[in-house]
């Protein structure tokens, strides 16, 4: 397939987004950028957030997990579903009652400046690495299958993609993103369904026979009952619930869109709708993953055990190439399917790229301006000065994104979803501990350096325990429950340094 043709579709898609951004950002101001003037339609937000929560990781990495893990990833998705109810009925009422623009303002009112700044800083670190890992995955696919053939270097590809994102988000912010995410989610789902339908047809499979083939190859295996395994089903489900609480409910990017909805009731409907839709969509992505492996096997692909750096490693070889994991979907879409499917794949892929990157860039700008700089608290600054600070911050974070994507290129891990979940365990744990302490207790914490120290020590302890858990606990491996352990250690540390309950706190809660 011609790289020039694919690149033409990429630019055509971007100009469509630019048109939507221009239309939605007319008469915009700082409130438009930060919270969409609290006028977003909940149905649009719910639908658009599918694209944000899925991202390029789901589009590329989740189908690839089926080769080694079957449908095991869906254990975590079940946990996600449970976590959304906690977000909808515990956290959202809190945010609406306090009329927050930044959700970390809760920590300011409840625990003080030190906890507030620490929480915001951990969000900034978490979202920066998480978003750039997702961004790298998609840019790398574009680079390998399109731009390498055109002689374009990776750094230039990254620069141009980030420039595109800046152009359609720096003015309209959340208001623009609500509409562009809806458009992009539509393309993600179209790409997913078309690819599933085509592969089923090419293998002469119907719904029942597809299910039978997936079962015969053991791809439908869901529950991992090995309690020592990192993927043990109870750990995955409970860990998945806490991942949603932390990565959605305590994440400024995700909550920024939710609190842009007019009322609490509509925001809760948005959250529950999102949980149902996300579960269905991820399940279809897993079915697609099974179909991709069936298709590759039909073309002569096979699993092989090889020795790499002295360790046994499972590879899936097709025409001499190892395409297991993140590589299988793009390899088959570009090299074994008709050009029109390749075009649909690339549109779906960049549709999965932009929602996670644009929302993260906007949320990071918002959190830094509001939480770290204190943009909305400084009444001496004019609206124009605040706007200039916000735009400058937006550009600085775009530069940080650029450098982080280059870092992930240097690391070159073949399963980005594993990196993202592991990073979340370390960086969202302190946030989970801070919010849990604030909500579940009425104790007070003195402002000072002790809070950030606790929030740094807890992940360090978790890392040490995780590295040695198999040796210490008879082969037990820590998986997604790392987030819970991290949050618990943070909670314990805060409890130790806290003092008895203060009567004035109950009014905030």
What attributes does this structure have?
single chain; 509 residues; three-stranded antiparallel sheet; 20 helices; disordered C terminus
Unreliable residue stretches: 29-39, 502-509
Percent range of helical residues: over 70%
Tell me the number of helical segments per DSSP (H or I, 4 or more residues long).
20
What global shape is seen? Answer: globular
Mean pLDDT: 81
**What can be said about the biggest beta sheet?**
3 strands, antiparallel
Strand arrangement across the biggest beta sheet: 1-2-3
Give the N-terminus to C-terminus distance in angstroms: 59 Å
What amount of the residues lies in strands? under 5%
Give a count of the beta strands, DSSP E runs of length 2 or more: 5
Briefly note the structural class of the backbone. mainly alpha
